Write a sequence for this structure.
């Protein structure tokens, strides 16, 4: 066992809230930080959405354990309170390099010397903001997949400055919170998962922007021809539009991707950002089962 029992999660969106629950469900004390009370007020609804997922996907789901996990999570807008006794910080804020540098500088100035720093950044290179932490030897990436409780990989990736002992400790921590720890030996933007996934999703975006086919037909073709359980637009719904938008905005010279990101952004602002909202490219019932493609995405 590691000594990492106090976990601070920065960002309580779709994935940050899942990370907080994953750690709490596996016995860690969690503080969930976000910049406004309005964002924190969304957490009770997120817990109930996750409860349905845990119950559906985990054969050994324990409702009492889930309730204890909720009770063990403290939500705060105080950065100082979030980190004052943290053994590990897990950052899950938007994919914006300047924002990450600013937030990590604040965390680094406030956290005690014992604290290990990890980022869940989806596509940025961690070494590009490691120095902002003030302790790059204790900073590395711990990357979660969406629907953490069942898609439970934990990619652990050091930067060239990471202390090898910290790398090994975070691999152990990932296992302690119910992840399959995946060591990524050489730093690469996107780790293993997103290095494979992002080009796949971009290809689907190009097909839609070029009005080649409807999302449901692209998904159907992919699933039948490859035997995959999900098509790319189903994956967009799973990941959530806001994550996809932030990744695409890091490619400003790709005009087709920017047009697609504009479409996603409009939908997200209307409260239709994917599975967690009950609507994205597809519409979903209360249990998360697809009810078919949302008519708004049909071409023509």
């Amino acid at each position: 066992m590691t000594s990492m029992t106090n976990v601070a999660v920065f960002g309580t969106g779709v994935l940050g809230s899942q990370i907080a629950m994953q750690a709490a469900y596996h016995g860690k004390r969690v503080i969930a930080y976000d910049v406004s009370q309005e964002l924190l007020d969304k957490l009770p609804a997120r817990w109930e959405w996750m409860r349905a997922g845990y119950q559906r996907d985990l054969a050994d789901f324990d409702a009492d354990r889930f309730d204890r996990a909720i009770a063990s999570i403290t939500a705060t807008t105080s950065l100082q309170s979030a980190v004052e006794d943290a053994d590990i910080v897990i950052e899950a804020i938007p994919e914006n390099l300047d924002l990450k540098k600013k937030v990590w500088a604040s965390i680094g100035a406030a956290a005690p010397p014992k604290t290990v720093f990890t980022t869940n950044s989806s596509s940025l290179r961690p070494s590009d903001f490691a120095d902002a932490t003030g302790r790059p030897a204790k900073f590395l990436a711990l990357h979660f997949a969406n629907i953490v409780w069942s898609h439970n990989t934990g990619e652990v990736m050091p930067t060239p400055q990471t202390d090898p002992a910290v790398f090994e400790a975070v691999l152990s921590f990932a296992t302690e919170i119910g992840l399959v720890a995946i060591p990524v030996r050489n730093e690469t933007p996107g780790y293993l998962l997103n290095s494979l996934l992002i080009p796949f999703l971009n290809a689907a975006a190009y097909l839609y922007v070029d009005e080649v086919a409807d999302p449901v037909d692209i998904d159907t073709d992919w699933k039948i021809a490859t035997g995959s359980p999900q098509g790319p637009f189903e994956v967009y719904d799973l990941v959530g539009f806001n994550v996809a938008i932030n990744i695409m905005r890091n490619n400003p010279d790709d005009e087709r991707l920017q047009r697609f990101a504009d479409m996603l952004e409009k939908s997200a602002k209307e409260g239709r950002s994917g599975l967690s909202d009950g609507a994205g490219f597809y519409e979903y019932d209360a249990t998360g089962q697809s009810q078919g493609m949302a008519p708004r995405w049909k071409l023509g």
